[in-house]
Write a structure and sequence with these properties.
With 119 residues, the protein is mostly helical. The chain has 4 helices and no strands.
């Protein structure tokens, strides 16, 4: 019988921060122009959801496989950051909004890389 250690994703700080980022992103994109609903809004929302979703999915795998899912989650966080910069340049979000989101994303990235190095 295999006694692999499983991670309870709901207890992981990185997963909880990821969910918090999703909530902040949805609140932010609710204010975007309606014509962006199927464009940038959809892309940003899906990208943000990918962050905690990949942590949850990977948590049931081996540490090596989990690390791969963390890489995907990190990639989504960098993608999200880029999309938020585009939204800012389009004047869809304020400087205060982007700074708040970028701070949380940077914190997520730092915490996730540190966690990944400990696997």
């Amino acid at each position: 019988m295999n006694n692999r250690k499983r991670h309870n994703y709901k207890n992981l700080k990185i997963w909880n921060l990821g969910v918090e980022i999703v909530d902040d992103v949805y609140k932010t994109t609710d204010l975007f122009p309606k014509e962006e609903k199927f464009g940038l809004v959809s892309q940003i929302n899906r990208c943000s959801v990918s962050i905690p979703s990949n942590i949850a999915e990977g948590s049931s795998r081996t540490d090596k496989s989990f690390s791969h899912f963390l890489d995907i989650s990190l990639g989504s966080s960098f993608e999200l950051e880029t999309q938020l910069i585009i939204a800012f340049k389009r004047n869809y979000i304020t400087n205060e909004q982007i700074e708040k989101l970028e701070y949380k994303i940077a914190e997520f990235q730092k915490m996730t890389m540190s966690f990944q190095n400990k696997l």
